[in-house]
Amino acid sequence: MSSQTPRLDGQGKPLWVSLELTYRCPLKCSWCNNPLDFDDYGRRELTTGEWKKALEETRALGALQLGFTGGEPLLRDDLEELVAYADRLGFYTNLITSGIGLTEERLRALKAAGLKHVQLSLQAARAELTDALVGARAHELKMEAARLIKQHGFPMVLNVPVFKQNIAEADALIEWAAGLGIEYIEFANIQYYNWALMNRDELMPTLEELKAAEATVNRWRDKLGQAMTIYFVIPDYYEGRPKACMNGWGAIHLTLAPDGVPMPCQEARVIPGLEFHSLRDKPLAWIWNESPLFRKYRGLDWLPEPCASCGDKEKDFGGCRCQALLLTGDANATDPACSRSPHHAVVRAAVAEAARPLRFHKPLVKRSAQAVTTAFLA
Ligand code: FES
Known about the structure:
By secondary structure, this protein is an alpha/beta fold. The chain folds into two domains: about 15-235, Aldolase class I (TIM Barrel, Alpha-Beta Barrel); about 245-345, no CATH class. About 35% of the residues lie in helices and about 10% in strands. The chain has 16 helices and nine strands. The relative contact order is 0.14. The protein binds FE2/S2 (inorganic) cluster.
């Protein structure tokens, strides 16, 4: 394989596409990785017709897997129409939702539109904890959404974002999910960008907490066998190895933001100096294949040392560009989650802070338009 382009192997095409239909959301999660200025995107969202054209261009590029996400995609009342259009184009469609707004009527309509798969997020097995964490009375709605999804026969992933405040819920969540016949749970380490980064000192679990949760997961894996797949990994901050973010920049993943801007990852706009184009102005094929944005960190030739001479470079591609920027101020740097990074001390310091006894605990900053102003003024 050429060192220029790890194909992995979409044959140079985007295998997996995230359609961020909107950044609007009824919840106020402190670990959200939507932009801090999410509120500014409302007026710039693509219309139904523009999304359909985007779907056509995406399919023409060879994409097959499509995730409707957000924000909360159910807030778009054209979701069913867009799912039906994507289905006709030949996409395998997945709805990634908080479950808020997923009534039986909408679920039936989505099924009729051709929706193939649902990923539902849930944070805790107890209503008081879920509701406190997401900043809304959401727990019962989420539980009901899970029951409806199973009842209507959708393949389903239960996505549990993992952080300090809910990590001890793993046992109760798996027990509840097993009772409902859910076949896949993903315990997803939250990624520290945007809102989550703002709250990182409070959200990050300790290694002991992660190991305890891992032991719980392993107990359930033994008990449930083939009946349920449980995904759980120790996060990059503790592993000393960076994640292979997006399987490499511009390799197989494409995000389409609510304003029709294609991006190599959902966080790319945190990196200064990159030029973004909207599908309103440029063809997707040019943006994916030719634009400086997608070529900037594609392949391996751009890698700095110590990545360039590292035997793992074809596994992790130097890690995450956005994390490198946010933690070092330089998107070209080795991801500091890597123990070989000259900046690894910033990750060690964050881990030490999470475990420091008797530290002053701050309230979590909830996602809201007002919180951005408050945070920037602080
Ligand atoms: Fe942007 Fe990892 S989130 S490269």
